[in-house]
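FORM 7B: Structural annotation worksheet

SECTION A. Query
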Amino acid sequence: MTSLTVNNQPIRYRLSPDTPLLWALRDASNLTGTKYGCGTGDCGACTVDIDGRARRSCQVPIGAIEGSVVTTIEGLSRDRSHPVQQAFLAANVSQCGYCIPGMVMAAAALLRHDADPSEATIRAGITNLCRCGIYPRLVEAIQRAARAQRGEETIPAAPLPAIEPADAARAVPALTPAIAQDDAR
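SECTION B. Predicted structure
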């Protein structure tokens, strides 16, 4: 068994130590905000924070990070109050949205290590791919999040999620009797 702290919760995975962290998070922990993109570590859709560094979870076997602290998009801020999340929403960074969780995690890690990144630093540090081409808005959003973290700017609060986070993971309700009867025919 591999023991990790995931989103501030101790977790013991009963999976092969060779299992990529991506699949442990998605399949065993039901943390589906971390996306599968390429499986080769090139696209960054699966980026999470491992011990304070942005890492591509598809390339990290859980056995290699025994005892580590992992933060996923779900653990960054469930109410979207993190400055990076607020800046992404305020700048309308998302288009299809598939790459956004990985981008947010990479940006949050970058800002933890560089409180005032230049455009060149952001472009070099955020190597995640986006097929929709959000890069100009991405750079401005990260710089705005940095200003917010430094207390130089206030970003309007992001709207609350449309559903309660606890409801997002609840079980699918049982079939209604009418549907169950139709299925029995």
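SECTION C. Observations
The chain has two domains: 2-74, 83-156. The chain is about 35% helix and 10% strand.

SECTION D. Sign-off
Analyst initials: ____
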